[in-house]
Amino acid sequence: MEINLPTGETPFALDRDEGEAVWFAGTLTIIKATGENTQGSFSMVEQLAPPGFGPPRHVHDEDDEMFYIIEGEAEFESGDLHTQAGPGTTVYLPHGTPHAWRTTEQTRLIQLTFQTGFEQFFIEMGTPAERMELPPEPEEPPDVEAIMNRMSELGEKYGFELLGPPLGTEE
Questions:
Q1: Which residues of the chain have pLDDT under 50?
Q2: Is residue 100 a contact partner of residue 57, using CB atoms and an 8 Å limit?
Q3: CA 137 – CA 135 distance, rounded (Å)
Q4: What stretches of 7-99 adopt beta strand conformation (E)?
């Protein structure tokens, strides 16, 4: 999927429902900025996630991440940091620090990634969103093993390693 956003040499503005939208692991993920349109500085996505969504525990080789909770609530764990993040909370997760997070209710958040290219991971793992809302519930349970294998494979490409299950689940 080609991302159709302005180049980085021109100021731009996107409304709430503008950007390249994908359904990623049960979320609506909207690509708001890429390395190409931020002159290589960062990427930015907005996610609308259902209760209980969260990635497996993982670590990024070079990507620093920053999250800003717009609405809803999520819990974050990284080293000594254990926090409940509600509207207005900012969470910074530096590269090299294992971390995991999950939503405790439907949550809208912004994720900034300070190495560019990570936004492509969402596109490769997701499918183009048909509407600007959460995807429909799958008719059959997802193949968790296949999803984890694909994430691990893409981790090599995008500079992260899976370390364990998502928060709130047991191995």
A1: 171
A2: yes
A3: 6
A4: 20-24, 27-33, 43-49, 57-60, 64-71, 74-78, 81-85, 90-93
* Nearby residues of 68 by Cβ (< 8 Å), 6 or more positions away: 89, 90, 109, 110, 112
Around 89, how many Cα atoms within 13 Å sit in the side-chain half-sphere? 15
> Two tokens at 140?
């059959």
Closest CA to 73 of 83, 64, 61, 65: 83
Residue 126 has φ and ψ, to the nearest 5°, of -100, -175
Q: Is 168 exposed, middle or buried (0-12, 13-18, 19+ CB in 10 A)?
A: exposed
36: amino acid identity, one letter: E
User: Which pLDDT score, from 0 to 100, does residue 171 have?
Assistant: 47
Query: Of 114, 103, 109, which is closest to residue 159 (Cα–Cα)?
Result: 114
CA distances from 113 to 95, 120, 138 (A): 10, 12, 29
Question: Can you name the CATH fold of 20-164?
Answer: Jelly Rolls (2.60.120)
Q: Which residues, 6+ apart, have CB-to-CB distance to 39 below 8 Å? A: 8, 9
Pinpoint the alpha helices (H) of the chain: 119-125, 144-158
